[in-house]
Design brief:
With 266 residues, the protein is of the alpha+beta class. It is built from seven helices and 13 strands. α4 packs parallel to α7.
Length: 266
Amino acid sequence: MELTQATVSDLLDRLGPQEAHMYLPGDGELPELTDLLSDRYGAPRTLAVDGFADPAVDESRGAALLAPFQDQAVTMRAWAYGGQWIGAGAVRDGDGVERPVLAVARRKVPGASAVAPDEEADWVERLRRITGRTEWPDERPDVDWAEVESRLGTALPRDYKRMVEAFGEGAFDGFLGLNQEPWTYFREDGLLVWASTEHEDLYCWRVDGDEPDRWRVVVQTFDGEEVPFDCATAQFVCRVLTDPRHRFTMARYFDTHWFMSYRRGN
């Protein structure tokens, strides 16, 4: 069987959106299948290797992919995509033969509760809840922000730094790419770029004053329009993911959200 992205799409369509799996031709895990899925969905999380399941695996990390195989999973890697888990690896069938497998399962993530206008909100923690990463360790806890800020010549908003530490390198919903440090391309215009999208929109701050936590978000669209928002960084991302009325919303496309990590093993 020749594996291509088109082949993978066809196989996933056959499986559908609910819990299902299929054995594939071959013996053992298919590295090319893992590579194709990683190209599409980012770095996978390893659920099982050499016949041993990761003891930290739970519902928020893809345990539903292992459920049909009980203790027969030899290797299993998982990708989050909206309300679905996608898994690939090798399992032992009813005859004890190790076979490659492609699996899907439903993925449930609790939404963020509403926050009243006068209520304090920890928007980074809300992002972790929205994307189902509440129990995941920080990806970059030891970032040298002093060195980064010295090189940029300015302090940076605390919620942005917490997002980078919590999520690391990757993209919200596989679409909104989080910069690991801001770009200075628009510095002469008073803008620092902290994220970008597949639509070539740039998410920036208007650098105004010496209190970065008071900087507000400005979107520089692909056609050069500047769209200001009266909110800080993490709150803006929460709104983009969950508010269907937001101009740059992702809520029209996904009910359940995720963070596509570019760092293998996350």
